[in-house]
Amino acid sequence: MIRNYVLAISGIPVQLAGLAAVALPWLIPGFVPVTFWLVMLTVAISAALALLVRAPLTFIERHRCWSVLGIDIPRQPAAPGGSLSGRTRASLRSEATWRQLGYHLVIGPIMAMGGLLVLAMLAGGIELAASYGYSRLPGQSGDALAASPKAQAVATLAGVALLLLSPGAAALVAWLDRTAMTALLGPSRSLELERRVETLAQSRAGVLDAADAERRRIERDLHDGAQQRLVSLALNLGIARESLTDLPDEARQVIAAAHDEAKEALTELRNLVRGLHPAVLEDRGLDAALSGIAARAPLPVRLSVQMKERASPTVEAVAYFVVSECLTNIARHAEARHAAIDVRRDGRWLHVQVTDDGVGGADPACGSGLASLAQRARSVDGSLRIESPPGGPTVVTVELPCES
């Protein structure tokens, strides 16, 4: 309740300051604009004063709202433009400027009248409620003592009523003022949504970069740790298999089986490491990494990569895994004889196209992994398009925004 009183009353001088600045040129003693040009000059001066006081008054109102209610009204972004005239033109074209002027010149004075009403209710209520006791103090005039008891009772009741109604009036004025300040002095709904979308996009990019960095760390740890130990184990078992010829057949069979298991585990671990994040992608780029998966494909693959400069690591990883999954789908479902991969960077976009001459009919809704590819492309604000008529050919086109 106290906050409502403070907000309603403390805003009176600030909320009247904008209107006072506009009226100031018209109140100069002895100055009467009687000609058209004097009127226009006075109007221009009033408009200039309104623009000058807009920013400091907005700052004061934002600080008042924060200090009294704990509500932070976000600041408007600074107007672009290097020179003073450029910033002025940008400010005049800004929606925020006119919303702030609307508050300081229209809504603010109305809220000030409400604050004055609350102040009058408090002062009048205290004076009327205390009038009976005040009239009985020693040294008061006979007129005050001569007032009828009925009039004194009515005055006291009126004062009490004003005091009881003042919290509701203060709450109403404070709510209206808070709503107006939030709507007019803060960013507009569209700007707030744009800022929120930008923040979410930055957060998502950070999460994707962190996830990609974590995959690279796991790949390095597996490559330098578990994979090297498996290589050493397989090598030692191979040496034992070839050199220990005087062992019983059962022991030799156990060593041979362990050697084969170690080689299979090593192969699976290499595939796992390659699926996490191939080291060649980070070391030599997308061209070399795609050459590797094209060479390992179970069907002939034509590869064409045209990139004068590399994309960001996250975008390269998305492109690599999209192509890898497409080749896996072609080998499993397409019954194709040939496939082609075309990668091209055009300005800010990386275009990836995977084509096969298979049976076609690829549908993301059938669980072929294409839906996850589209989701992976959208994770970096990219897009995926599939053209796969029955009988083929199937063309998967991916467009990814890339930054150097």
User: How many domains?
Assistant: 3
**Mean model confidence by pLDDT:** 79
Low-confidence stretches: none
Round the Cα radius of gyration to an integer and report it.
Answer: 39 Å
Overall shape: it is elongated
Task: Write structural notes for this entry.
69% of the residues lie in helices and 9% in strands. It has 404 residues and is of the alpha+beta class. Strand 2 and strand 3 form a beta hairpin. The longest helix has 36 residues, at 149-184. The model has no long low-confidence stretch (mean pLDDT 79).
Brief rundown of the structure:
This protein is an alpha+beta fold and 404 residues long. 69% of the residues lie in helices and 9% in strands.
List the keywords.
single chain; 404 residues; alpha+beta; Heat Shock Protein 90; 3 domains; 14 helices; 9% strand; elongated
Draw up the topology in text.
Layout: H1 2-23, H2 36-69, H3 84-93, H4 95-129, H5 131-135, H6 142-146, H7 149-184, H8 189-224, H9 226-243, H10 249-276, H11 279-284, H12 286-296, E1 301-306, H13 313-334, E2 339-346, E3 349-356, H14 370-378, E4 383-387, E5 394-401
Parallel strand pairs: 1-2
Antiparallel strand pairs: 2-3, 3-5, 4-5
